[in-house]
Give the backbone structure.
Amino acid sequence: MDSTLAFAKSGAPVASGVASPASRVAFAAALIALATVLGLVEAALPPLAVVPWLKPGLANIAVVMALSASGPFVAGAVSGGRIVIIGLATGTLAGPASGMAFAGAAASLFVMWGLSRAWGSLSPVGWSAAGSAAHVCAQLLAAATMLDSPSLLALIPGSVLIALPLGALIGSLARYLVSRLPWRQA
């Protein structure tokens, strides 16, 4: 209960029209639920023919929405919460898949947050594309480290070329959804 109150009272505004602590918690919880559902849907999708290890990153729609409308604290909570819940639901929480997921999510969030701060004119489409590339690189680096197989790093260039347009698409969807929020930031 104390952590929920601390989250609700944090100075990070959720959006210009969402000022109450209950609204902050509800908004973050809704985004965690959205990310979880999208992540589970994505887990059920068949692998892509060309690159079976690469997924479109549907759950990141909620993370980009959180970063755009709320800032890095809520985006981190959405990203981490989604990984934990999906890991529990799929039975992969204590395995290497979760380690790779956390590595990718951390790298992605760091890059997206950095770009949003460095270039105020860069839209969520650009953040998401760069975050997607960072996510793929971090996951392949984590996999290469866990498996002690540096040859996996050879997959980075092709994976990044596919991740960039997928990330831009995710960013476009997130930007559209945030623009439809009744209390969105101007």
Q: What stands out?
A: Residues 2-179 form a domain with the Arp2/3 complex 21 kDa subunit ARPC3 fold (CATH 1.10.1760). The chain has one domain: 2-179. The mean pLDDT is 85. The radius of gyration is 16 Å.
